[in-house]
Amino acid sequence: MTLSLDPAVIVGLGTLLVLYARAVRVLASRGWGVPRLQQASWYTGVGLMAIALVSPLDPLGDDLLSAHMAQHLLMADLSAPLLLIGVRTPVLVFLLPRPALVSLARRHWLRSAFRTLRRPLVAVPLWVVTLYGWHMVPMFQGALGSPFVHALQHESFIAASLLVWWSVIEPQKSHTRAELWKAGHVIGARVAGMFLGMAFAVMLRTAIYPAYGDRAAAYGLTPLADQQIAGGMMIFTDLLIMLVTLGFFFWAAEREVPRQSPRVPVRASAGASAQRRS
Q1: How many whole angstroms separate alpha carbon 68 and alpha carbon 154?
Q2: Which of 108, 109, 112, 196 has a CA that sits 20 to 30 A from residue 54's CA?
Q3: Mean pLDDT over residues 150-177, rounded?
Q4: Are 143 and 149 in contact (CB under 8 A)?
Q5: Which strand (E) or helix (H) includes residue 246?
Q6: CA–CA separation, 41 vs 37, rounded Å?
């Protein structure tokens, strides 16, 4: 097994690290310390992307569908929410150099399009179309046969996942509001995607991607078993995300409920009783 040292990937990951470190340093110079947990979230997200794209998992994805699926899960399903947590405001405002940020801010059509795309009723269908569309046999085969199309596939998965998670995590705000509809939003997206994993794991009785051929045999697997493992990984990841999200928002909502003390001051209670008797 060898590392995948694609220059574009290395530069991209390095840029993410440099931009974030710069934003943290600028904020520190202004008296704002970015919480360590928030920083850890960003660096973990970038680390998961590195595992997916630089580690031996990348070349292994040419031989095994399960390895290729692991890449998608690491980048889109796990890395995307961690990156949004890590970039929470005020880091979000300082992530890009000021000239670039101002240039983007002046493009009103771009801001308007982004606001539309990140709406839950738009982001979830877009995510589902992206997920299922790329897993159609012609599209998936095309990605395996072209480095450019393969990169476009990965980028579209990440972008669609970021849109789904944006309204849940709300990185443009100082904290995530504990609104229970967000749990339903995430669960709806995961359930829609989980049907694809069920198809791979249970429903399909033959391997559907000819490009993999019999390469799985070199790893002691049949093509069908490799495909079923890929589907099982999708189902497990979806279930894990649903459980964690549901648990977090119920816990957070309970903490945000105003706690009204049932105890009434004795003097106030006695005074009210005396007034009623009089």
Answers
A1: 11
A2: 196
A3: 92
A4: yes
A5: helix 223-256
A6: 6
- Residue 7 CA to residue 155 CA, distance in Å, equals 16
Per residue in 219-252, pLDDT (tens digit) is 999 999 999 999 999 999 999 999 999 898 888 8
- Which one, of 109, 270, 84, 58, lies nearest residue 172 by Cα? 84
Closest CA to 137 of 201, 202, 208: 208
Residue showing tokens 């059509």: 109
Tokens of 151: 């990169």
Q: How far apart, in whole angstroms, are the C-alpha atoms of residue 109 and residue 96?
A: 19
**What mean pLDDT comes out for the span 55-64?**
92
Q: Are 6 and 61 in contact (CB under 8 A)?
A: no
Q: Which of 101, 89, 249 is nearest to 172 (CA)?
A: 89
The rounded Cα 267 to chain-centroid distance in angstroms is 54
CA dihedral (166, 155, 19, 110) in degrees, to 10, reads: -60
Q: How many whole angstroms separate alpha carbon 135 and alpha carbon 128?
A: 11
Residue pair 183/245 in contact (Cβ under 8 Å)? The answer is yes
SS3 state at 66? helix
Q: What is the mean pLDDT of residues 193-204?
A: 92
Would you call 186 helix, strand, or coil by DSSP?
helix
Question: Distance between CA atoms of 104 and 110, rounded to whole angstroms?
Answer: 8
